[in-house]
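Treating backbone geometry as a discrete language has practical consequences that deserve illustration. In the encoding step, the backbone of a single protein was reduced to a row of integers, each denoting a local shape. The amino acid sequence and the backbone structure tokens for this protein are reproduced below.
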Amino acid sequence: MRLTFVLRSGTTLVEFLLFLGLLAFVSTALVFMLLATEDTRVRQGSIAEFEQHGAKTVQLFSRSIHNAERILSPSAGATGAILALQMRLENEYATVFAKSSTGNLIMVQKRTVDYVLPENVIMKNLVFRNVSGSVSKSMTFSFDLETIIPLPKPITYTKHFDGSALLPQDRTYESGGCSGCSAPACTSHDYKWPYCQSGVCKTGSGAISC
């Protein structure tokens, strides 16, 4: 009688444990790679949106200055944190820009007060410089914007922006339909600006601290 032995292939305990270890390593690496990819996507998206706010603010300042009839404040050669512009249309006169106490950008047109930036963007170091000479009338401006990028470990991102704009020389002054209105002024930390209502000069206040 002849006995026949059949060898069956199988997995030893050591091989099985090595397989589990390799699987755990690959799974962990994949998780970290996916998290890193998501962090990169969030960071890049947040920065792109943030820089759009900066570019739009530069465009807003440049366009408003270019469309203005006169720079009311700061005066020629002076620097200030508040910009006041004399505009042609009644509903835009005066146009005033300033930073709020919470770091938002305030834009006033006549008596309408708007906050330009979203809550997650903070403005700092807002400076307007009136560089007008005897011939040309122009302004330069600069500011910093700051935001918190919402990552597992939040990142503070800051960027500096600046620009300039020239006022046209061949412009007829209409002052919103009024003439001889008082100049902007700071009284007891309350900024007051002129506006026109049906041909009558009025004074706006209460929106900007100075």
User: Anything to note?
Assistant: Residues 21-177 form one domain. The chain is about 25% helix and 35% strand. The mean pLDDT is 86. The helical segments are 13-67.
